[in-house]
Amino acid sequence: MSVRILALVGSLRAGSHNRQLAEAAVKLAPEGAEVVLFEGLAEVPFYNEDIDVEGNVPAPAAALREAAGAADAFLLFSPEYNGTMPAVLKNAIDWLSRPFGAGAFGGKPVAVIGTAYGQYGGVWAQDDTRKAVGIAGGKVIEDIKLSIPGSVTRFAETHPVDDAEVAEQLTEVVARLHGNVGEVAAA
What we know:
Helix content is 39%, strand content 15%. With 187 residues, the protein is α/β, with parallel strands linked by helices. The longest helix has 23 residues, at 164-186.
């Protein structure tokens, strides 16, 4: 059985190290797992119930929901912005939490990882992301964690896919998330 994992990146910057980490996850996905990097979070409007009307949802938000609906699991990449998750990632979570009680996360496995400049690798942001996505209906796999500190220097001249330690850890993260899909379905 092939497992589709939707990757959402909380940084819009073209040279984002979290985006590079997501690109590495796509390349390193083990057999039976497909990591799909969602493009278009920058176009998704801020969540507003007034525009979340069945049959008239803004196209970028509808595309996000469609991609999430086709996913078996989620891998969220969160940098740390002022001690918490970036607005673009929180906005995606908000859109995917609706309609209330029937959002796209729907008990599907979710892992949150990332990299940041600071010495803790964005741990606070990732913890906040886990909390938000759990409340939004995702089945957060709490023991799947990867927080890579010092991204500016560590990845200054090396893409994460070419960093042996990161590649090994990232491969394990994706494999464990893949394995949790069956566990959640059986529960």
